[in-house]
Amino acid sequence: MLEQLHADLWIADAPLRFLGLEIGTRMTVVRLPGEQLLLHSPIAARPELAREVRALGGVAHIVAPNRFHHLFVGEWQKEYPDACVHLAPGLDAKRPDLAGAAVLGEAPAAGWSGVLDQVLLGGFPLMNELVFFHRPSRTLVASDLAFNIDACSPPLTRAAFRLSGAYGRLSPTVVERLFVRDRPAFARSLGRILAWPFERVVVAHGSVSERGGREELERGYAWLLGARGG
Q1: Which of 105, 117, 177 is nearest to 142 (CA)?
Q2: Are 119 and 193 contacting, i.e. CB atoms less than 8 angstroms apart?
Q3: What are the residues whose beta carbons fall under 8 Å from the beta carbon of 146, sequence distance 6 or more?
Q4: Read out DSSP for 200-227?
Q5: What distance lies between CA 144 and its chain's CA centroid?
Q6: pLDDT in tens, 77-123
Q7: Which terminus in the chain has less CB density within 10 A, N or C?
Q8: What is the DSSP secondary structure assignment for residue 79, as one 8-state letter?
Q9: Each residue of 30-83: pLDDT tens digit?
Q10: Partners of 38 in the beta sheet?
Q11: Is the per-residue pLDDT at 124 higher than 50?
Q12: C-alpha distances in angstroms, 160 versus 65, 144, 171, 177?
């Protein structure tokens, strides 16, 4: 179930249907110093997956990186009751059941500050997404910042993304065009992300972009970057 991308970075995929389309979803696992693990955008804690994760180390941090990727945080919290739960802004009100959770901000938590950098996407309250940069592997770890739907997706999904103009490349969807409320703020956040020296991009929906991810992301957001402002 786990696929290794780097000595300290893994992904695990699961099915997910949205608006009738199979878009899949993805969890990223980061190994931190001291054999501790961080789970980003958790998927269901299926027994086989839980065993594989346990073989890598102990889960110390569980991260819900935006207001949509939180459904399975509770399952992993039951598996690892001592783990720290970290929520995107707004999820603390939406998920009061996740008692004691910390709200993510611009500053990396002490537990991963030497390994991961992060940016909170401004001007996009629908998502309030945190995007991360894994320094050792030069990997951007995101959830809904972009999709990467290609030939690996089912035919209906491919057809829908062809119609939207977002097929076969790392690209935002119509959601960003419609629901970004402060384009200059969002563009400034995106500019900080594009300043990171990443090559690989891991997103929650679609394929991992192994090479040229920074350039693809910049092209995908060309319509916005002119609004970056001061």
Answers
A1: 117
A2: yes
A3: 170, 171, 172, 201, 203, 217, 220
A4: EEE-SSB--B-SSHHHHHHHHTHHHHTT
A5: 6
A6: 999 999 999 999 999 999 999 988 999 999 999 999 999 999 999 99
A7: C
A8: H
A9: 999 999 999 999 999 999 999 999 999 999 999 999 999 999 999 999 999 999
A10: 30, 61
A11: yes
A12: 26, 17, 14, 17
Length of the chain: 230
Tell me, yes or no, if the pTM score tops 0.85: yes
Tokens (6 digits) for 165: 């103009």
Q: Where are the domains of the chain?
A: 2-222
Determine the straight-line distance between the first and last CA of the chain, rounded to whole angstroms. 44
Rg of the chain over all Cα atoms, to the nearest angstrom: 17
- Answer yes or no: CATH 3.30.360.10 is held by domain 2-222: no
Nearest to 88 by CA among 123, 125, 115: 125
b vs e for 62-95, b when ≥16 Cβ sit within 10 Å of the residue's Cβ? bbbbbbbbbebbbebbebbeebbbbbbbebbeeb
